[in-house]
Amino acid sequence: MEKKLQELKTRLLEVNDLNSATAVLQWDQSTYMPPGGAAARGRQMATLGRLAHEKFTDPAIGKLLDELRPYEESLPYDSDDASLIRVTRRAYEKATKVPPTLLAEVYAHSAAAYQTWAKARPENDFAAVQPYLEKGIEYSRRIADCFPGYDHIADPLIDFSDEGMKAETLRRIFTELRRELVPLVQAITAAEPADDSCLHQYFPEDKQLAFGLEIIKDYGYDFNRGRQDKTHHPFMTKFSLGDVRITTRVKENDLSEALFSTLHEAGHALYEQGIRMELDGTPLAGGTSSGVHESQSRLWENLVGRSRPFWQHYYPKLQAVFPNQLGNVSLDTFYRAINKVQRSLIRTDADEVTYNLHVMIRFDLELALLEGKLAVKDLPDAWHARYEEDLGVRAPDDRDGVLQDVHWYGGLVGGAFQGYTLGNIMSALFFEKALEAHPEISDEIGRGEFGTLLRWLQENIYQHGSKFTADELIERVTGGPLTIEPYIRYLRHKFGELYPL
Amino acid sequence: MEKKLQELKTRLLEVNDLNSATAVLQWDQSTYMPPGGAAARGRQMATLGRLAHEKFTDPAIGKLLDELRPYEESLPYDSDDASLIRVTRRAYEKATKVPPTLLAEVYAHSAAAYQTWAKARPENDFAAVQPYLEKGIEYSRRIADCFPGYDHIADPLIDFSDEGMKAETLRRIFTELRRELVPLVQAITAAEPADDSCLHQYFPEDKQLAFGLEIIKDYGYDFNRGRQDKTHHPFMTKFSLGDVRITTRVKENDLSEALFSTLHEAGHALYEQGIRMELDGTPLAGGTSSGVHESQSRLWENLVGRSRPFWQHYYPKLQAVFPNQLGNVSLDTFYRAINKVQRSLIRTDADEVTYNLHVMIRFDLELALLEGKLAVKDLPDAWHARYEEDLGVRAPDDRDGVLQDVHWYGGLVGGAFQGYTLGNIMSALFFEKALEAHPEISDEIGRGEFGTLLRWLQENIYQHGSKFTADELIERVTGGPLTIEPYIRYLRHKFGELYPL
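ok -> structure tokens follow
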């Protein structure tokens, strides 16, 4: 058995190395690659991806997984070896159930759909993408049908990024959340809007970057095992547990852009850097789901990085860096500015309160499309209707309406959005637990100290990598299932202090 | 036949993509990778290298090459397809004649030898590396013996980097060259030494880098298909013909360091960027030998970049960038400073005239070691003796003696040094031909214009990639074999003007 496990690990390490190489090529493509490198780079990444897929779906891996089942069952559920076998088996089943020919068709479709969308969005041309979207939904259904036995056709698609989550559970949770959020937004936006003009002055790039780096160093991001570079769309990426990088972008006329993207990506990176080194190079060495991953980026960005104690410590430092711009701006004004709530059209620019409404609109429309209850041709109108209902705004066109996000046009329809809101919900759930265990965390944040919080997160969440699903992890940490209560408490408390609710 | 050729190309493209990915990983390792990434990165590159080797040595490729022989013979020798098949066959034979087990042993040995050397050099401990060097020579002989029928045991090793070159030819050429150089160095060093103190002032990094970039832009280096980053040991690397990068290093107290390394690496890059785009992704899309490659780096670094007309144009610009440092330094003083000739101990710091003596010492010692005429234990003394004879200097220890270069301690012994001097010889050979065809090139250089020279080099050398061996290329360009005459003429003319010869 020891020998078979070793063989499995050797094969998985080869797949890991190919995938890590692809990640390096992607990082380079997004940061430093000159324009002339684009064509060959796309092909190189496709080659590595194909080889990794071939090696991972090799029937020899399936055979090893079968042979190792008795060994797995003889071990504790949460042991490294049992978890490795279990998690690999789930991934292997997902990777092998979709026929390679269908997968190739989907890749080709995704590339064509993305190209079309990239041109159609600035031209506000929904008609151009409509046939691609119809085709995309058809492919999504065919992929889902490779996993018979689902309750809802979106379940297998959701399962790709949030393992074990079901459409019906999410629909129930999101309905509850929406019931809370819509009146909250109404109450907030009825009040005097916050003045965020202090954020829109000239802030030189180098100083913005240096300030952000200073904070994430305090967070505990290990620069010996990471670095930050500039890119167009910020992301976190990992080449090994010893090399977890983040990227950011800077707007010299908007202080919040680089700062909060840095804190957000650092949250993702703290999760990856906190995984036990013994798991490096295995399928366990990564965050467990898009929801849990997002919970950590949002925790460090919002629950910590947009909190009052945090800025009680950092605002004088920020003022010292930008004395001309912020010297006469009070902490209170600044705090309100970075927590301004407003009805808006664009998801990625949305504040903490309205953000989830944007996400849930997309999630519900996705389900309706997959269920066949909504036709693609009716999607733009359905989009506008739902924005008016939930957010009280209507986009002047499809560019800032149904064409605004790449997700539906660069891959499958379904499963790509729920993680954002799951992340917000879980961020408060985990943070509340951490505070329960260590009430001193709030005071520490007010002193720019994050060690107690980081250690609690490492101990309870990070170290495990993807050993446990999100549900298992939540059960272990909170003793119960996923609930929105802590998140609602958090929002009511924070925004109740800022606005008359 | 068309179908078989296509299959060959598809297989070679896959190998190319794996090798290009390895190159990206190496570039990142040398430029931006945080220290924590080192261990996994080494393994990732080894995995990609192994897969590329497996795919390239697949017997299916050998079979295709056999089947394509009649097709190849039906085509003109210099056609793309015939050249692709011919060059691939030579590479395939080299890759398959060495048994994988021997190759694995050599890799393991190289890694261990390098580790030992990296520690032994600062400690001046030749005894520590002696057994590794002995083992390295044994491996080199075993590798050479995989290619029976050689005239000299070093021939197969030389052939890896300078295809078709033979030890005896090189020995003859180098002996001629040495006969010219030793008295030249004696005459120069008998004269008043040049004062290069103007180069050793404080020159801020950003200004140094910007100035170097300005020049290579004038050279014709295409930043749309390349970029420059900082590293410890400067190099050129290529991920595709659309992405040819260079690196440099800066010393703020030595103006020549970054400047000439930038011009040198840009020369390598101009070669690669000048290859016909149709060859991209194939084994033909690369410089043809280490000698020809080095001829281009040295041509742009020395024959152009250390020439008087060049600095007549650029020196006023350099003075404008560094007015405090160079405002009172005359062009003549600066020109003498960057062309200072001196007897020295370290190859990589050597000037144009003495550099080849350093190389030839190593080449001769290598041959003696491989022939068994020199024992490793006697190498340090042989080194010192030869330095005293050729350069009139003796290192105080082995650190700056036989331990100074990594080459013998990080791979095979033999074949790694001759390319440097071949490059110098060829740089003058090609440059003289370009001037014969276009005598206006000198005046153009004096105006900071390089278009005529670059186009001549592209037309005659660069576009072909590795279609022709160095010998074939020299024959095509000059109508004769390799000769040192132009190089000697170049040195006598240039340094005769600077020193009383």
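The first helix of chain B runs from residue 2 to 31.
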